[in-house]
Amino acid sequence: MRFRRDAGLDPSQVQDRRGMRGGGGIAVGGGGLGVAGLVIYLLITFLSGGSGGLGGPLGNLDGSTVSQAPPSQALGSECRTGADANARQDCRIVADVNSIQKFWSGAVRNYEPAQTVFFTGSTDTSCGQASSDVGPFYCPMDKRVYIDLGFFDELQSRFGARGGPFAEAYVLAHEYGHHVQDLLGDLGRGAGAAGPSGGSVRTELQADCYAGVWAHNAVDTGLIVDITEADVAEGLDAAAAVGDDRIQSETQGEVDPETWTHGSSAQRQHWFSVGYRSGRSADCDTFGAKI
């Protein structure tokens, strides 16, 4: 995936907290967020740590900082164009966010932009204090996406994904899929229901489908030159790597579908593909479809 060299970036859509300490690093799901935070954790974290069903795929980390990036207060001056996005990871994520939000602003009536927050180790959110252990997540109480960029290294080293620029874009597009669900009033439809066809899984699969919808339309946003078959393969590989069945098999040695919260590798790949093939959010009704 390449960005148009002369495309202008909007760094104001990203808040950079890297290098700032957010507190004691209490993991989401570990008692630090209370009931509201636990519900958010169950439904909408991309790779939720500390979940009893999954054996805490990111909860196995030791709570240490996974990104050692130095403090950066200069995204506004360093991430100006698509050429910068082609050269630097943080600028690439800015460009991903810009593209994703440009698409949804034209697809969702009265779309409300949501900032992405870069952080290191732990940070304060309106959903409570969060650590890197939980992976990227969306907080509906402040309508922000939070990510420690060190997660992308973990995606490869711990979960076996190939990684790559489009795998990163898939992660961001999934989280912004939750923002779209929030704006449309669908985010809470799966509250409290786990299992292979439960509401939590349906919520996550719809976000995967929305990620595919963006990918189908990404070139039309004007920031991205092309989406290749190799790019799509990166996204599908990342989706498979974080399927509940694969994580359970690798961390627990057995698979228990009744505890799934995000869907199997096959389900996640399928629903991303549904969105990518059609490019229409109307085809992402995971709550009404057989999944």
How does this structure look, described?
This protein is an alpha/beta fold. The chain has one domain. It is 42% helix and 9% strand. It is built from ten helices and eight strands. The protein has helices spanning 34-44, 75-78, 82-87, 89-107, 151-157, 165-184, 199-217, 229-241, 244-252, 265-278, and strands spanning 2-3, 14-16, 115-118, 122-125, 128-131, 137-139, 144-147, 224-226. The protein has a four-stranded mixed beta sheet with strand order 2-3-7-6. Helix 4 (89-107) packs parallel to helix 6 (165-184). The two termini are 29 Å apart.
Brief synopsis:
By secondary structure, this protein is of the alpha/beta class.
Name the shape in a single word.
globular
Instruction: Kindly give the count of domains.
Output: 1
Q: Report the total helices.
A: 10
Our estimate of the beta-strand percent is: 5-15%
Q: What Rg, in angstroms, do the CA atoms define?
A: 17 Å
The main sheet orders its strands as 2-3-7-6
Structural class: alpha/beta
For the sheet with most strands, the description reads: 4 strands, mixed
Order of helices and strands: EEHHHHEEEEEHHHEHHH
Task: Show unreliable segments.
Answer: 23-72
* Count of beta strands: 8
**Estimated helix fraction:** 40-55%
Q: What is the mean predicted local confidence, pLDDT?
A: 84
Distance N to C terminus? 29 Å
Keywords:
291 residues, alpha/beta, four-stranded mixed β-sheet, two-stranded antiparallel sheet, 10 helices, 8 strands, 42% helix, globular
